[in-house]
Every structure is written in C-alpha cells, then in structure tokens.
Design brief:
The chain has 4 helices and no strands. The protein is mostly helical.
C-alpha cells in the first residue's frame, strides 16, 4: 500500500513541477523563428500565433496565483519577447508594402509619362 502511495505521490509531484502554460511551447517556437535573420513568417502564421498568445495570456491570468515568482517572470519575459518580435514582423511587412507601393507608383508614372508624350 505504501508503494502505491509513493508512486501516486511521485506522479503528482512531477505533474505539479511542470507548470507550463498552454501554448507556451508554441509561443517560444514562433519567437525563436522570428529572431532568425532569414525568418519568413507568413501572415497566417502570425494570425495563428496571435490567437495562441491571447490564449497563453488567458491561461497565465488563471494560473499566475499558483505559479512561483520564477515561473511568472519567465512567462512575462516570453510575452515581452513576443511583443518585440511581433512589432519587428509588422515593421518588416510595412517595409515590403511601402516597397511594393513605390514600385507601383513608378509603373504608374512611367505609363502616364509615356501616354502624355505621344
């Protein structure tokens, strides 16, 4: 009987020690991917990551009272890192859109110039 109690207690302790939040591994993965210089994250991937981040935050709010200070600090740092890479991703997307618009304006100006010279 003591043996079964010891096993059950051990399993409980192991489960309690792993206080990872829902989607924490997913958020860590997207942060690592976004930090790479050659990262090419699609709009759909960002959309999925944003949804997971919202659920991560909800889970954090529900569990933070049971978390240690170190676990809360780790979760808060991860949220901050996500915000930083998300902003960087948005700026890169904006840069691409501006470049596309610039190329479109060049084409429009060339066409207008060609058509008025005839």
């Amino acid at each position: 009987m003591k043996f079964y109690f010891a096993i059950i207690f051990s399993v409980f302790v192991l489960c309690a020690c792993n206080n990872k939040l829902n989607y924490q591994n997913d958020i860590e993965s997207i942060v690592k991917k976004a930090q790479k210089e050659d990262a090419n994250i699609t709009a759909k991937e960002w959309e999925d990551a944003d949804l997971k981040m919202e659920k991560f935050k909800e889970d954090f709010d529900l569990k933070k009272e049971q978390m240690t200070k170190e676990e809360r600090d780790e979760a808060n740092e991860l949220m901050g890192r996500y915000v930083a890479v998300r902003i960087k991703g948005s700026l890169n997307e904006l840069k691409e859109n501006i470049s596309d618009f610039d190329n479109q304006m060049d084409g429009a100006m060339k066409e207008l110039t060609d058509s008025t010279e005839k």
